Amino acid sequence: MKRHLLVTASTAAWLLCQTPHGDQLLASTLPGNADSTRIPCSETLSHNAAWLNRMGEADELFRAGQYDDAGTAYLAAAQDTGTAADHDLCLAIRLGNLSRAFSTRGQYGKAEPFSRMSVHIFEVAAAGGDNPQLARQLHQLGTLYTKLGRYGEAEPLYRRSLGILLKNCPSQSELVAAQNDLATFLYETGRYAEAEALLKEAVDTGRRVLGPTHREVANATVNLAALYVVQNQYSDAETIYRRFLAIAETVPGVTAADQATALANLGLLYNKESRFDDAEAVLRRALTIHEKELGPDHPTTALTVTNLANTYSSLGRYQDAEPLYHRALRATAKTIGTNHPQYAMALNNLAGLYALEHRFDEAEPLFRRSLGICENTLGPNHPDTAMVLNDLGVVRYWQRRYTEAEPLYRRSLTILESALGSTHPRVAEVMLKYARLLKAMKRKPEAKRMEAQAKQILAEKARSDPSRFLVNVQQLKRGN
Question: Is the dihedral of CA 466, 467, 468, 472 positive or negative?
Answer without folding.
Answer: positive
